[in-house]
Design brief:
- The complex is a heterodimer of chains A (280) and B (350).
- Chain A is mainly α.
- In chain A, 81% of the residues lie in helices and 0% in strands.
- Chain A has 13 helices and no strands.
- Chain A is globular.
- In chain B, strands 1, 2, 3, 4, 5, 6, 7, 8, 9, 10 and 11 form an 11-stranded mixed β-sheet that branches.
- In chain B, helix 3 links the parallel strand 1 and strand 2.
- The longest helix of chain B has 28 residues.
- Chain B is globular.
- Chains A and B meet through helix 4 and helix 12 of A and helix 1, strand 2, helix 4 and helix 8 of B.
């Protein structure tokens, strides 16, 4: 790792890199670093006790747990669905495969508020399918299931994006070898592909989890924003901030930010370790 | 040996990650486990309200009701609530949120629910006081010491005064504020009341620099330092003053409107099993105990004598009600639609 870094920056001396680095830092300071610092400064303004009280309030606790649970659920479902989609798209050539490849990546491009609206217009009580569900007493919107649906939609491409490149590059000879010694498709997947996919799976899962934890635009449309029922942590932060309760809003914002930092810390460590293994 | 140590190290690290992940998962799952569910109360009232009701319902009125209900029946009940702009709440209910009761900022939003077929027309008028739970006049909040010298709505039309106003498309309070501004002009004794109302409304709106989705959100903007003046419910200011958090002066206009807040029961969301509980809470809102709590939190009670209990209520020379303009349907057509949307917004674009 060290050797590589040196060889990359070797031809420019120490003095010449000082200027661009300091410019970059100056730009990043008000753009990224200071706003994040402000959250923590405000969160701890009333002292650690007030912070603790804010985090411990039943609504805040519920919002945090609910967000985490939805994030776990989203990660689990999309790990399976995304890997399956990546497998199909990488290993099979069929009519319309390109188009399907674009479609499954669409959620990155669509504004999340639009996702929320479209879910409401499909599953909501006045929606296309929702209308038929009402007489059955089923109604996914404004329930936890609605939030899960929104998060599955929004985070779908992350798993796919992390797994598919690995599958694309994997040499088919290993698979073919497995087939020739009589392994079934499932056994081959389990014993040959899955171990190779480990890195992609973990990266995809962490990305999905982090995005689900912070999702706002789609959730605000479909959750009904009910305290202690369907209010996720970002919605809680927004509601408290709008109500002028900045202390409560910031405490949870700080917790959420910390969780995301932790996830991204692992993500980067993991990515760099994978890179090292590849290099060595 | 070295390889073995590395393998062990990796195993340990993987185990630590797994345990941390499992702990996080257990923490998240806990409220949904059977153990936690046993401890939770079985019945809930789902209550939607407009923005400024959050504290008084969650910390004042509901706990009092909860106690009364437990004393009478021995049953512990909970409230699930959501508060945002009155128009937002109305649209959410039309889209199907499972609200049992909704306390809306203005009757016009209840009419919208009726038009969408959610509730029978005028069903809320069967409640006491025709469904009006409480009132509060519209006032002007200015920066401490009133540096701009604002004494009345008329002063808001001066050039350079920056006003924070809630958004009439999503906020009930904003609609009240429009009628308050128009009405203050129309009732000023001018020869042509309609003209005077229009002129005042136009003058105020030319100075609006920020709009927020609800009255509460507008106040948050104002508190964060936007603007010289905020037009809002008196209750907002009184509640803050009671907690020593008010960082603004309250200006009582000569003429202003008293907003009236309408309770709506959404029958289609109430199961037969929960009807007694929901109806008991609805009746409780109009009862003496709840009305006293509303006064304590800065709302004016529909029962006049109770209002003497709060010395913070300012006096208004010429208070008026929506009935003075023929009710909300007429006021919407003649003031909000015809004057504000039809004339003022159009003239501002010029």
């Amino acid at each position: 790792m060290n050797a590589r870094r040196k060889s990359r920056g070797g031809h420019s001396g120490r003095g010449s890199s000082l200027f661009p680095v300091s410019v970059l830092l100056l730009v990043l300071l008000p753009l990224l670093l200071m706003p994040l610092a402000a959250v923590f400064v405000f969160a701890l303004k009333g002292g650690p006790l007030a912070f603790w009280d804010a985090v411990r309030s039943p609504e805040a606790q519920f919002a945090l747990r609910f967000s985490l649970l939805i994030a776990f659920g989203t990660t689990l479902v999309n790990a399976v669905l995304g890997t399956f989609a990546a497998y199909v798209l990488a290993k099979h050539r069929f009519w319309g495969d390109r188009a399907l490849g674009v479609v499954v990546n669409l959620p990155v491009a669509i504004p999340t508020v639009v996702v929320g609206t479209s879910l409401l217009l499909l599953w909501g009580p006045i929606g296309l399918l929702g209308k038929m569900l009402v007489p059955l007493g089923l109604q996914p919107m404004f329930r936890p299931l609605g939030v899960l649906l929104a998060h599955l939609f929004v985070t779908f491409p992350y798993m796919l994006g992390a797994v598919k490149p690995v599958l694309d590059e994997l040499e088919t000879t290993y698979e073919e070898a497995a087939y020739t010694i009589g392994a079934s498709r499932w056994t081959t997947f389990r014993l040959v592909l899955l171990p190779a996919l480990r890195g992609g799976l973990i990266t995809g899962a962490l990305l999905t989890f982090a995005h689900s934890l912070g999702e706002f635009g789609a959730t605000v449309m479909v959750s009904g924003n009910l305290r202690l029922k369907t209010q996720t942590a970002p919605l809680y932060i927004f509601a408290q901030f709008e109500a002028g309760d900045i202390a409560h809003a910031n405490a949870i914002a700080a917790v959420l930010a910390l969780l995301s930092f932790t996830i991204f810390f692992f993500l980067f460590r993991f990515a760099s370790r994978a890179e090292r293994q590849e290099a060595g | 040996m070295l390889i073995l140590r590395r393998v062990v190290k990796r195993r340990v690290r993987a185990a630590v990650f797994a345990v941390a992940g499992l702990l996080l998962f257990a923490y998240a799952l806990w409220p949904w486990t059977p153990m936690a569910r046993l401890a939770r109360p079985p019945r809930t009232i789902v209550f939607y309200g407009f923005s400024i009701l959050g504290e008084v319902i969650n910390h004042g009125v509901f706990p009092a009701f909860q106690k009364r209900w437990a004393d009478r029946t021995g049953e512990r009940v909970e409230i699930v609530s959501s508060f945002s702009g009155s128009g937002t709440v109305t649209n959410q209910i039309i889209l199907g949120v499972p609200a049992h009761l909704a306390l809306l900022s203005l009757e016009l939003d209840a009419d919208k629910l009726a038009q969408a077929g959610v509730v029978p027309a005028r069903s809320w008028r069967r409640f006491p006081f025709e469904g009006v739970v409480n009132r509060t006049p519209f006032v002007i909040l200015v920066r401490p010491g009133n540096p701009r010298g604002i004494r009345d709505f008329g002063d808001l039309t001066r050039p350079g005064v920056r006003i924070v106003h809630p958004d009439p498309f999503t906020s009930g309070g904003a609609n009240w504020a429009i009628v308050a501004e128009y009405g203050a002009g129309a009732r000023s004794g001018a020869a042509d009341p309609r003209r005077a109302g229009h002129d005042l409304l136009l003058g105020v709106w030319k100075n609006v620099v920020a709009q927020a989705a609800s009255a509460r959100a507008a106040r948050t903007q104002f508190e964060n330092g936007f603007g010289d003046a905020l037009i809002t419910y008196e209750q907002e200011a009184l509640y803050d003053r009671a907690r020593g958090k008010l960082t603004a002066d309250v200006v009582y206009p000569r003429s202003t409107i008293l907003s009236e807040h309408t309770l709506v029961r959404i029958d289609r969301n109430i199961s037969r099993r929960d009807a007694d509980l929901v109806d008991a809470f609805a009746a409780f809102l109009f009862g003496d105990e709840a009305q006293r709590i509303f006064v304590e939190y800065g709302f004016r009670s529909v029962k006049e004598p109770f209002n003497e209990a709060n010395p913070g209520f300012g006096s208004i020379r010429d208070p008026f009600r929506i009935a003075d303009f023929g009710g909300w349907e007429r006021a919407r057509d003649e003031i909000v639609e015809a004057v504000w949307k039809g004339q003022v917004l159009a003239e501002m674009k010029k």
